[in-house]
């Protein structure tokens, strides 16, 4: 058909499976195993449905923006809020990666990056991680149209020290560098302090992991005011009202309970440490994780076989049939009880 000649064709991002059946152990999409802060449920019960007939406030003018600015000790003019970090990152690609030179990102990384690049017709180069799944700063010291990488990286969970992050930013002062910190709260050191020093640095975080609100869809970027203005100019040229009223109110309630946030992060990190110990005993190998998951390979049993046998037992983990990582499983850290069930199943498969 003639009209198909004008269709913008891309290979879409493939999210983790969302099974409809109940009673499963779901360790495949890096959601929090714990509920949001208690104040979120209280705020949800108090939502005024009458407000829903009105457009929401612009995000930077809301209680959520003020709460985030206070929490990170930045101005609201240094903050951009969107519908999950995917929305924020998509807007950042559209805003800042507008060059004939290729943008740079790792070959093993969040698989949405090349999708956005293809959608927006942005040239890109994938930079190979080393044999230990490390990002090598020296590889990013070449002409480019922008740089993006997660820290900790996904799906590997490997964290780059802050001084190496700064090394990449310093080497790329003529382009925007985006540090995607979706998993920073599980043992990493944020690059946020660097935004005062570098006007080309954008730091992106999310409520989907450590704040247990993947279903509400809140993400945010932090940088110098000029970067944020450019982001808002593009956003308001696409859709001014991206955030909904309920998300803005519930997000503010989540930020206000710092003690609960820290408690949940610590519980996940403690469970991760225990899981690393028994996974090693069962014959798995992996790099030290700084995320809410472990990216592991068994010494003798193929990852696909383990993945399929776990699935038969209603335990879902993530497996990719991709070069370099097709013998690895990404295992989200669940509750202690969920991880004990996983251990029993793996002991039968691998023991």
Major β-sheet annotation: 7 strands, mixed
**Stretches where pLDDT falls below 50 for ≥5 residues?**
none
What proportion of the residues is helical, as a percent range?
A: 25-40%
- Counting helices, strands and paired strands, the structural category is alpha/beta
Summed over residues and divided by their number, the pLDDT gives a mean of 95
Write down the overall geometry: globular
Structure in a nutshell:
With 351 residues, the chain is α/β, with parallel strands linked by helices.
Give the secondary structure arrangement, pairings included:
Blueprint: E1 25-26, H1 38-45, H2 63-72, E2 79-82, H3 84-96, E3 103-106, H4 113-119, E4 124-127, E5 146-150, H5 162-170, E6 177-180, E7 201-206, E8 219-222, H6 225-238, H7 245-255, H8 258-281, E9 284-286, E10 293-298, H9 303-312, E11 315-316, E12 318-319, E13 329-332, H10 336-350
Parallel strand pairs: 1-11, 3-4, 3-5, 5-6, 6-7
Antiparallel strand pairs: 2-8, 7-8, 9-10, 10-13, 12-13
Give a description of the structure:
The protein has helices at residues 38-45, 63-72, 84-96, 113-119, 162-170, 225-238, 245-255, 258-281, 303-312, 336-350; strands spanning 25-26, 79-82, 103-106, 124-127, 146-150, 177-180, 201-206, 219-222, 284-286, 293-298, 315-316, 318-319, 329-332. By secondary structure, the chain is α/β, with parallel strands linked by helices. The strands form 3 sheets. The protein has a 7-stranded mixed beta sheet with strand order 2-8-7-6-5-3-4, with helices on both faces. It has a 4-stranded antiparallel beta sheet with strand order 9-10-13-12, with helices on one face. Strands 1-11 form a two-stranded parallel sheet. Helix 5 (162-170) links the parallel strand 5 and strand 6 (177-180). The longest helix is centred in the last third of the chain and has 24 residues, at 258-281. The N and C termini lie far apart (56 Å). The mean pLDDT is 95.
